[in-house]
Amino acid sequence: MKQYLKNHEWQIVEEGFDPHLNRVSESIFSLGNGQMGQRANFEENYSGDTHQGTYIAGVYYPDKTRVGWWKNGYPEYFAKVLNAPSWTSIGINIENQELDLAKCKVENFRRVLDMRLGLLSRSFTATFPDGKKVEVNAQRFCSMADGEVGAIKYSIKPLNFSSTAKITLGIDADVVNKDSNYDEKFWDRVYEESQMGWVIVSAQTKKTFFQVCTGIEYDLEMNGQRIGGKVFTNIRDKYADNIVEVELTEGTELTIYKYAAVLTSENHDKEELVKKCHAKIDETSKIGFQQLLAKHAAVWAHTWSECDITIEGDIAAQQGIRFNIFQLMQTYTGKDERLNIGPKGFTGEKYGGSTYWDTEAYCLPFYLSTSDPSVARQLLVYRYKHLPKAIENAKKLGFKDGAAFYPFVTMNGEECHNEWEITFEEIHRTSAMAYAMRDYVNYTGDKDYFTEFGLEVLIGISRFWVQRVNWSADKNKYVILGVTGPNEYENNVNNNWYTNYLAAWTLRFTQEALEYVKNSDGSKYKSLSGKLNFHEEEETKKWKDIVDKMYYAEDKTRGIFLQQDGFLDKELIKVSDLPAEDRPLNQKWSWDRILRSCFIKQADVLQCMFLFEDDFTLDQIKRNFDFYEPMTVHESSLSPCVHVILASKLGYKEKAYEMYLRTSRLDLDDYNNDTEDGCHITSMAGTWMSVVKGFGGMNVREGKLFFTPYIPEQWKSYSFRIEFNGRVLKVKVAKEKTEVILESGEPLEIMLNGKGVKL
Amino acid sequence: MKQYLKNHEWQIVEEGFDPHLNRVSESIFSLGNGQMGQRANFEENYSGDTHQGTYIAGVYYPDKTRVGWWKNGYPEYFAKVLNAPSWTSIGINIENQELDLAKCKVENFRRVLDMRLGLLSRSFTATFPDGKKVEVNAQRFCSMADGEVGAIKYSIKPLNFSSTAKITLGIDADVVNKDSNYDEKFWDRVYEESQMGWVIVSAQTKKTFFQVCTGIEYDLEMNGQRIGGKVFTNIRDKYADNIVEVELTEGTELTIYKYAAVLTSENHDKEELVKKCHAKIDETSKIGFQQLLAKHAAVWAHTWSECDITIEGDIAAQQGIRFNIFQLMQTYTGKDERLNIGPKGFTGEKYGGSTYWDTEAYCLPFYLSTSDPSVARQLLVYRYKHLPKAIENAKKLGFKDGAAFYPFVTMNGEECHNEWEITFEEIHRTSAMAYAMRDYVNYTGDKDYFTEFGLEVLIGISRFWVQRVNWSADKNKYVILGVTGPNEYENNVNNNWYTNYLAAWTLRFTQEALEYVKNSDGSKYKSLSGKLNFHEEEETKKWKDIVDKMYYAEDKTRGIFLQQDGFLDKELIKVSDLPAEDRPLNQKWSWDRILRSCFIKQADVLQCMFLFEDDFTLDQIKRNFDFYEPMTVHESSLSPCVHVILASKLGYKEKAYEMYLRTSRLDLDDYNNDTEDGCHITSMAGTWMSVVKGFGGMNVREGKLFFTPYIPEQWKSYSFRIEFNGRVLKVKVAKEKTEVILESGEPLEIMLNGKGVKL
After folding, report:
1. B10-304 CATH, one of 3.30.420.40, 3.20.20.140, 2.70.98.40, 2.170.130.10
2. Chains A, B: CB contacts under 8 A, how many?
3. Does the annotation mark A135 as catalytic?
4. I want to staple A48 with a disulfide (CB 3.0 to 4.6 A). Which of A102, A205, A472, A704 is the partner?
């Protein structure tokens, strides 16, 4: 855990330069716009410890799988987020001395991420080895108004000298992935051009043949006047630049505006990429930095107006929640149906593929509540389009007749992961697709989604479950053997309660969806049945049989559900009784020791109670929470939010607040000592849920909004906004009262603390 | 399965050359002498599909671990059997045409492994593209009389031409391991020399710094006369040769004798290696091929006199058992306490490290019965010497106070394997060390082994079990969670019956050993207690408690022990009901499907009943055999032998014979389609047990020999020899009678079919 950032309501502020924290800051200060983004690497060269990272949504590389021991069924490739050509560098060389914060004396270093504007700023003074001193102010952003555009304003002022500076303005496509399995480079060259004032580099990924064309133009300004300079043009394989010689005068600031355009073959014909890229940078540089920034900031202003959460009386909490919302919003905008929410967004390349069940289980409620319903629908359609691959994936593992098994990690629908206990066994994820539909329909009432897309997916998933359960003659029940539940600190267990529950629920839900489609659009139902070779009578009979006879492990004495068969054979120890030096367990204990311990990585039984809280009595939730919570180590970032929500429901306010701090400042305070690899983007939606669903007690039941809010003692008030059925509601919770204001849209009745309230 | 070899009592015979079978034959026809060995690669160049392999016992390389997902506790290195400098090549070039069976027309190809002599022969005629035709006869062996020596006799006769031949006689140390994790080469050069008539190459392994110095000399003979030729000497990095130009005359045979010496820094000072190697090849070539072969054959004659098994009336079975014995004897001779029995011996490099629990569980009875007791003792001492590493290994996984956890795969005592479900969880192996002591003491009566070495190991292992069990408040018993039993088609299960049984037995056995040492050598016991910081009262009390309260899963209705908790939740299907195209499961099914199926890779509950057959009634064995046998797929080579032995005991003669065929000709008939990687050396000891302990019903109880023999219907008679307490017994079983003859040693009483018989 690190606490080196300043608290501020709207800004993330780092003061003073500590090279040891550089990778962490590079993650935290990352920028993105849903289409592209990059870590907060310095513009000028830096020879110290850094992880250079530029990422473009949807541009990936299928790296050859590396395993110790191959298991049948493993995918041959792991499609990875790809480190992409970088456009942010501005090299400064003065009398053969490179401006390099690892080699200069650095003072007054200040890095600020302004979340309201979506602007990254950095300022410092640097003293070169020979005593020359410069002051630097840099700003940059990736435009939310135009996903293909980015801009930098970089000012340098000589404080105690006048001299010639050589300024390198380049594009580098000769980049590597940190996690390349066989130290391969993933890019091939296509085209480089460097002319006075502009540079273009086009590169293509190996195997996947994505082309990315990156262009830059730049302007230099001194005393408010545009100036020129002597320009040298350079190209080499996958790299091009302009080197500009400019005379610096003591006390006078030189400002460099670098405009970038990044176009990909995902959105343009390959043949036209270079031409279009050229046009784009021309256009962009003509608009100019201030105007581009204004357009960008306007998008952010609108976004914040829809999704901001305010917290009064606790700046750290306020900063935390805004940071979470900011990162979510710059990771995924819902504009492109081919994209999804990568676990690291644009902040790093760890965990490869872009899509996990995190999207459905954690992120969807956030986008449902803060964005137009089309955004959430987009996320659902994304999975619909992957249905054929999910069926293929199931086939590889021996399933048949159209059973759909969604991958654990994916880019294009194909499974990427290769750890048998996850890839093959963490099967609950395939029902997350069904749960997301439940959420979507529940919020939006748009049941026609079943007709258009949903039922087809649901039948595929149900067919998977029908084949995946087996009849236990011993138990006289259906059982599900050999699974890994959400708690990945158990592998290959039998009858994980969460999984069994979700499987049976999926079959029931599919039946409901089927009834809806059948009754509302008989001809569509008929044609779908034909397409899927669906035998309604036989198949639904089997569903019902499984639903009726599913086995659920429980301990009747304690009145709890059992996470899996045999859980009570473990030594039941509390986390609080563990020596501090044993934690985090995943860094201190061998894997087998973790597996046979009672310790829970992330909510599992409790996760299910959170997802289906209306299915359980408060007393049931309490007994299970009291049993499992003390054994939960929350070594997954996806865990604390669930505990916030259930603890809130149970009135465990202290526990809820403790868990809230853990989720909301996970990256800002580098809680798990891994922020240097990137931020935990998907869990940030969990933080949002902690406030809205936890403290705010927000829920949607059959199209109706419910709130049962309370306020953590440490806060004076908090407020959040909810998009719901075309309305925007603002909920403000203070110690003494709760206000719910209909900010826009038609009148509506909500339930507040159990009572109907008309707005 | 392939059946391309001719049946013969003493020989393995391949007739006709099929390049597709070449890798399989290279494995089957491998040669070794306990110290070095090699696959049956051709002497002349071969550009077709081949796996070139030369191996030297004890010379290994710690290859950097490669995994997909690192788990805490994994070893950083995997110590591998090392492909070593090769001395067998003889290149033949005639008028710029290389003799290469991939490029010539090959006729009359015949390869013979004479197991009585330990001699590999090969003959063929080859027609070059230009029509020149030669006849070749080659013989080679690795001397059992001198482990550092090998020799080749290679004759070539031009059938339809006279011309100059260039003969390349070299040593190549620039070899690679097929399974190098990162495509690294493992050898560094040390020294090369090539002078007229001899060549020496010395190379050193990276990281481990083993030096291997290989030298050759040669003689050429024509018409019984030694001849010379024009000699060119060549060296390059890690390679040296002589190229000799000889005039060939149509119809006249040229014979090349190539003598090799292989000396390693394990047995000689590095500084003296080259000198000693030179002296050795001088000496060897002076002795000459026929004399070297005679000495070698004499050793084999002696060996066969001790361990041969004859089978009358079934040549395939006779050939099979001799092949198994032959391979075992050329893999391990018991001369060097640092060596052990690698799973592939000198026939391939798969499976890396040299020592598995196979040695203790399968091989020990063979060496105990066919060799001097010192050989088996050597194998025990090998593990004693690894005790500190076993303690270190346990420590890495969180155990303390001198708990000893023996590695799953090792070279020098350190764990090499990196698959969590095996490395960390297949823990029963550590008790195999205790079982081996039981076997040894049982056969030899040498209880002082406990005092000298054994008790220290037993206390270490017992301390491991004490920490590895945990108390289940739910069951009110000790349980063992998260293990993999011998049946590796189940991972991370609870209360594997085999493991629980072995753990409790180990504690009882340690107590017995302790009593013996305490009573027989009180002062040694005292000093040992001090050394180990052993708290007798407290520790033995805990042992007793665990023994008394160990949980054993069983199904009382069926009267069977359960392989593990929850086994009866599976669908219980018979192997005979599986579609043929689904097998072998490990090639056809994804791993999760295998895991949740009932199918058993190798005997597990039955393995335990085999090890402790006196602990169970015949009825118990029958019920468990009848339950588990139909679900066993025997996809481990170690499985069928156990079934032969139990089936024999139960009078299931057909089943016993079916299983016997499977084990005895596993490699000869390439049953599992994997012989190309090397032979299954350790399971060959299981084949021996199948005859002696299965059909012969041999057993040792408290120092007394028992036989309850029967004869498979397909055989006329069979016989085997047993070394026992300084005697050699020959047991001959025919349809009508069994003869037990005391071939040497003092009179002795044995039990034959339940009756005492004095010999």
Report:
1. 2.70.98.40
2. 131
3. no
4. A102
